Amino acid sequence: MEHSxxxxxxxxxxxxxxxxxxIMAAKLGYKVCVIDSKSMVGGVCVNTGTIPSKTLREAVLYxxxxxxxxxxxxxxxxxxxxxxxxLLARLQHVVGREVEVVRAQLLRNHIELLPGFASxxxxxTLSVDVEGTSIHRTLTADKIxxxxxxxxxxxxxxxxxxxxxxxxxxxxxxxxxxDSMVVVGAxxxxxxxxxxxxxxxxxxxLVEKRPQMLDFCDPEIIESLKFHLRDHSMSFRFGETVxxxxxxxxxxxxxxxxxxxxxxxxxxxxxxxxxxxxxxxxDLGGLAADNRGRLAVxxxxxxxxxxIYAVGDVIGFPALAATSMDQxxxxxxxxFGEPANELRGLxxxxxxxxxxxxxxxxxEAELTSDSIPFxxxxxxxxxxxxxxxxxxxxxMLKLIVHSDTREILGVHVFGTNATELVHIGQAIMGCxxxxxxxxxxxxxxxxxxxxxxxxxxDVANKLRAVARFRTQMATAEPSAL
Length: 481
Prior knowledge:
This protein is of the alpha/beta class. Helix content is about 35%, strand content about 25%. The chain has three domains: about 5-150 and about 275-345, FAD/NAD(P)-binding domain (3-Layer(bba) Sandwich), CATH 3.50.50.60; about 165-270, FAD/NAD(P)-binding domain (3-Layer(bba) Sandwich); about 355-475, FAD/NAD-linked reductase, C-terminal dimerisation domain (Enolase-like, domain 1, 2-Layer Sandwich). It has helices at about 15-25, 45, 50-65, 70, 85-110, 190-200, 220-230, 320-335, 365-370, 385-390, 420-430, 435-440, 450-475; strands at about 5-10, 30-35, 110-120, 125-130, 135-145, 150, 165, 180-185, 205-210, 235-240, 240-250, 250-255, 260-265, 265-270, 275, 310, 350, 355-360, 375-380, 395-400, 410-415. The strands form five sheets. Strands 1-2-3-4-5 form a five-stranded mixed barrel. It has a five-stranded parallel beta sheet with strand order 7-14-8-9-10, with helices on one face. It is globular. The model has no long low-confidence stretch (mean pLDDT about 90).
């Protein structure tokens, strides 16, 4: 049956996934609209998540002078008394510019941006409550992509007041840098903010119900991060759950299930996020979310309803802006029959702690579990001229290489520019390159990229030693064995 729809594609949400889905469909020549609140153009990524937190991190690094302390002494600071105003000045500028960039990109691609809140009437029909008015607009679309992101999970036993007890979206509303803080949840968001406030001089206590933090990362890298966080007076409470949080004019008391009590000026609760699907009337669209508000999708990001797709944080792990962008592109391509490839196994993970972490590919534990032979090469920033120049004596790069084929299986980086450096390894792995490329190539000097050369030589020397020993054993006289 022939249908006539108002739009070929309606995208709910203007975050990274929604933007790229809309632009991809527009590039293919389809009529597209994006529905989102005026105050959230760019999504959580631009307004309360990725961009604000990473801008805050850069402000912290600069104002505290942390990256120069190896050169100028432990007391070195660019500004003695750092205020919230100092931190937010740059943040507000960057967020404003990013919102304009998103608007301009949508406009340039003739995508209609509808300010409001969408909900399903039926699988092809959406109701849009036009923001700031009492108008309810109804529109139809051939394809629909849900990219509504997430909101902080708020457990019932915690009373969030937005002043003393905050979620991760509210943390930027603090009026001053606190002297002490409890961070509940050692996931990516919790650890990132915990490290930033620790760098500012806040005494941070990190509470996590699991026995370890960031357990999807390389254990050696995480141990290095914990060492540096402890050096900034951070305390860890692993294997602990929060029983209650009490707040008053002077501060808070966090009571743990084990009976411990932790006093602090403020508490940031960052133990998980919830899919932002509560107002969508999913049942009218033929959909259902799980108990955390997330939607299940197939390998093409299609939901259980054939013409409805979902991308970004609303579908769960890895819930990163970078992966969300690619998911949006792929979903729109599949929806309209456009060939598109995905390098799912080579998606880099970047964690903007202080110091930062990034990795791509597989870990030692995964390879050992799958009985894949490998060798490891290590390069430490303190052995690089650039590491000395930048004052980073703790950074490291770990290279994991297949013992037989010499293919690069994983790259794990800790320290300055980790999230930039990881892409060199990612590119080589994507092209099927081996460690021999790193051994044979020439890197600019002095650069942190030289870490690849050093780690590559480390691996090559280890593999050569094994090969030499095996050759000697094979050619030795039986009587000599």
